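Page header: ASSEMBLY MODEL / two components / 400 residues total.
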Amino acid sequence: MTKKLVGLMWLVVLWACACGMGLAQGQTGRLEITGVPPEVSTGRYDRQAGVFAADVSGIEGALIHVTFEEVQITGQKLEWRTDDDYLVFTQGAALTKEDFTLTADAVEYFGEEKKLRAAGNVVVITKDATVYADELDYNEETDEAVFTGKVKVEFEDGVLEGTKFVMLLEKSELQFFGAFQGLFNTERE
Amino acid sequence: MSLSAKAKRIILFSAALVAVILFVAYRYLLQPPPPAVSVPPSVQLVQSRLVGRREGQRQWEIISRSVLQEGDVVTLSDLERMVVFQDEEPYLHIQTPRAQWLRKTEVLQLYGPVVVEGEEGLRLESGYLEWQGQTGRLLSPGPVQILWRGMEIRAQEMSLDMEEGLMYLRRGVEIRDGAFTWKLEEAAYNLDAESMDFYGNVVLEGEAGSD
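Prediction written out in full:
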């Protein structure tokens, strides 16, 4: 069990790196839309409303990339409200940093509240573990990541399943809420 | 008096030669030349005020030190003032050293360096601009630089549909807006709604969380 928790701690550290460092305000970022033929409409920027919307879901091979330092978020549909620094990726949304990957149906970032939310088929993959959930809420202020819904944490030699799983990153603490089931391979090397 | 056959031939040949000479002289020397192609005399005016109208509405007004009219082409040099109107109100003020007004096609060609200034800090610079009166479009087929409501816009080609209030930017489009810089292939900017449609690949560089 200790080995599994160490694996989860690694996940915690990587998560902190990806979210805390990458999405901090004031960082130089880059948005790029690739694979679009010149005559095809890519998106619209409403300057009065401060909203940029892009949709390349109907264009084969086209993708929207947002890069903050070493963190990259990709997807096929994006809405970015520049005034309140809100950003939502839908359709094939993925957040990556080195060997850390988060995929979900939608990834939202609330810049003013410093929160990140992923919803629908949430999968977080690290070198040591994979977490599946219906939803993920991450709060930069409290450094807390909450996985809810059908939560499953897979290690190399075990699986934990439950309905709510919280990572308190600053405290390096993992909390399991409600009924959790664990299945581990107890064979010793 | 009877003439020898030889003398008759000489007389006949001489008569024929005289006839030919007379015909040639009449045809080419004595006949008046054909009327010249009608070319209206060019008209040059000094210190003129010209007003372009369409359906009674004033489209533009030019004060020029030199105006030369040749047929349907009016060449304006040393322009002092050029104003484009919209709904009878001054809309754009243009500085250009030379312009040509093609009356038949209602095209006003402005030769650079051209500077266009308008409301809300609009400043447009181009090497050549063309105002197409029939379609109400201002066209820059070459590089253009625009300052507009705090934005700095560059493109290799621009056309402005003044009736629709739409600015089309093409090739090498770069838009600086505060901390953000857009780089794209093509954009259509709605001046009234302040919205911009992007076409093709897009790059946006900037600072997250900045205003």
